[in-house]
Write a structure and sequence with these properties.
The strands form five sheets. The chain has a 16-stranded antiparallel beta sheet with strand order 10-11-12-13-14-15-16-17-18-19-20-23-24-25-26-27. Strands 1-3-2 form a three-stranded mixed beta sheet, with helices on one face. The protein has a three-stranded mixed beta sheet with strand order 4-6-5, with helices on one face. The protein is mainly beta. It is 14% helix and 45% strand. The longest helix has 17 residues. The chain is built from eight helices and 27 strands.
């Protein structure tokens, strides 16, 4: 009996070791293997920097991709298709090696590519009704004899043909391309064909939208009316202008035949606009910290802000707002009213009234400001706008150890500005340009107020690099000069450098000339400056976390002269001072928070600490 039980126990327990081994193996199989390196050999005509981003297993600098056989096969297919789409019809792609490092659970992958010869375009023809198209439509084509065959260029050409027609009212134009290959596949012929369809004319315009917004608010933003030819450009600008009002969350435009169906003239259409409203009431709150230097205590450098607005008074898109900002140094209350379309002209009128109190180490004063701003966007020049600012400000100096730097109480000025903006995103741009020119002339009150001229320009550029990284740079310059009875530009209207945006190796406003007043080192500001964000590299780290590396340079001079040669001549490239640093970014769908440390590279400028820390919301530029 005991012998039978023993044999039974052995038979029952014998699968246990193998089962444990199988579970251990399963656990090993379930472990994530990550790609340590992906390499491609044999590439000659195509650049690796253009190939690697298309592969799903391409390991980034800070994040390794999870390896799988299916992803490996997918990348092999992607690589093959990428070469064929660029004219390498005889390409051969092989998975050369896959080396596993079991100790670190890492995989190294090598793809071997034999590009083969590249197919060349021998002839290009364009068939269709080309009458009335000036300049000739053929000039819009990127593909041409002697160039390499590229399917992306061919697809772009078909899109360009349809867009070219659509910009002239042929919104239903269709383009196609037939590709002919020689027997050895080394030469190709392209035959583009297109049909224009009818030239669309606006018959009637039907507008549907939220009940609390007048239809004429929508209608005045449209760039077409009944009887006009409907073009792609007019549609695109109309939709963009409707979004720019800030009143709508979603806008659609459709065109259909006039009744009866079929209509007598199929080219005359009903244009239907449907705009969905967004929330008109908004509230924003902010909390920040900035380094002021000097004798300010840690807790004195916190700041807070609140802003409330309602964007549709009287159902006409009139916006009212109320803002407040406060710290132990500065306090401001601002009320504003923004009215679009003045007397039927597409000009935004923006009126602001502000009261503020500044208690800085150099000066303690109250100011009251009324500012009127008119904005206008150029229709002939896309992405370009201009504005005129009329400012009246009264400053009541409560305390100043240096009265000569204050100037008169009243500043009455008019300013003009021009901007050009092609950024793909206002909050966190990845590519594009942004430039502004602003000129201000103070002295509208004559000798009773401050008289000075002030000009400033800013240029910013952004370019995507590597994977989800951005390389950006900025240049800014300014000059201010007194004239008439004034002998100085008042300190509140001078330029200041240092802080979270430029010359980040210095605390807020602490770069430039200083003066010892009441045993305190007080920044004087300047009347001429040149500053550059020479280089800023923004890169992802993990999910919402990112990093920045930056190099800044600048010079600031305080020259109180009415001569432009004397003032501008004080700024020299030989006087540039440099600082560099790094930081962390927290990017959420709502805001971007930055924590950066800047280091002064010029040791002779550092007084004590050569480092400055900045905690801010939004990018530096």
């Amino acid at each position: 009996m005991k012998k039978a039980l023993t044999i039974a126990a052995i038979l029952l327990l014998s699968p246990v070791p193998s089962l444990c081994r199988e579970r251990a193996q399963d656990r090993g199989h379930r472990q994530e293997w990550k790609v340590a390196r992906l390499k491609i050999t044999g590439t000659q005509k195509l650049k690796k920097r253009n190939i690697l981003p298309a592969l799903s297993l391409n390991a980034s600098l800070f994040r390794k991709k999870i390896f799988s056989v299916s992803a490996l096969r997918k990348d092999s297919t992607t690589l093959h298709r990428l070469y064929r789409s660029n004219g390498f019809l005889r390409v051969s792609v092989e998975i050369d090696t896959v080396v596993r490092d079991s100790a670190r659970n890492r995989v190294r992958i090598v793809f071997s590519v034999d590009e083969g010869p590249r197919t060349v375009i021998e002839s290009v023809s364009l068939d269709g009704d080309k009458s009335g198209f000036e300049p000739p439509l053929e000039k819009k084509l990127k593909a041409g004899p002697g160039k390499s065959l590229s399917f992306s260029i061919i697809n772009g050409d078909m899109e360009r043909i349809e867009t070219w027609c659509g910009d002239r009212g042929y919104l239903e134009a269709l383009a196609d391309c037939k590709i002919g290959l020689s027997e050895d596949s080394l030469k190709s012929s392209l035959q583009y064909t297109f049909t224009t369809g009818p030239c669309i004319t606006v018959g009637t315009v039907r507008i549907t939208g939220p009940d609390r917004v007048h239809k004429r608010v929508i209608g005045r933003e449209l760039k077409f009316k009944p009887g006009d030819t409907l073009t792609r450009k007019a549609i695109r600008r109309s939709i963009n202008d409707l979004y720019s009002t800030g009143l709508f969350s979603f806008v659609t435009l459709a065109y259909d035949s006039l009744p009866p169906d079929p209509a007598p003239d199929s080219s005359v259409r009903i244009v239907a606009i449907d705009a969905q409203k967004r929330d008109f009431f908004a509230a924003e709150f902010g909390l920040g910290y900035y380094t002021l230097g000097g004798s300010y205590k840690f807790w004195q450098q916190f700041r807070g802000s609140v802003e409330t607005s309602y964007g549709n008074f009287l159902g006409m898109g009139i916006k009212g707002l109320l803002k407040g900002k406060a710290s132990f140094v500065n306090q401001e209350v601002e009320a504003g009213l923004v009215i679009p379309w003045i007397f039927g002209i597409p000009i935004d009128w923006d009126g602001r009234a502000l009261w503020g109190h500044d208690d800085e180490e150099s000066i303690n004063f109250e100011r009251t400001r009324i500012e009127l701003k008119q904005r206008y966007e150029f229709n002939p020049l896309q992405n370009t706008g201009t504005h005129i600012i009329h400012r009246w400000e009264n400053s009541n100096t409560l305390q100043s150890p240096d009265p000569d730097s204050v100037g008169d109480k009243t500043t009455h000025s008019i300013g003009w500005g021009l901007s050009y903006d092609t950024r793909n995103d206002f909050i966190d741009p990845q590519k594009g340009l942004y430039t502004t020119i602003d000129i201000e002339v103070a002295g509208l009150s004559g000798a009773r107020g401050n008289q000075f001229v002030k000009a400033e320009t800013i240029f910013r550029g952004y370019a995507p690099v590597l994977q989800s990284s951005v390389l950006s740079s900025a240049l800014r310059a300014g000059i201010a000069m007194p004239y008439g009875s004034s002998r100085i530009v008042p300190s509140p209207d001078r330029f200041y450098l240092g802080g979270a945006s430029i010359m980040r190796g210095f605390d807020e406003k602490q770069f430039g000339e200083t003066e010892i007043i009441d045993n305190k080192e007080v920044p004087l500001g300047g009347t001429a400056y040149l500053a550059m964000n020479l280089l800023e590299f923004r890169y992802p780290i993990y999910r919402i976390f990112g990093g920045t590396l930056f190099l800044d340079a600048g010079t600031l001079k305080n020259v109180q002269s009415s001569s432009i040669q004397t003032t501008a001549g004080a700024v020299s490239l030989g006087d540039l001072h440099f600082n560099a640093g790094a930081g962390l970014r927290l990017k959420t769908p709502i805001i971007i928070v930055r924590l950066e440390a800047g280091h002064q590279l010029d040791k002779e400028l550092s007084d004590g600490s050569s480092w400055a820390w900045h905690l801010s919301v939004g990018n530096a530029f």
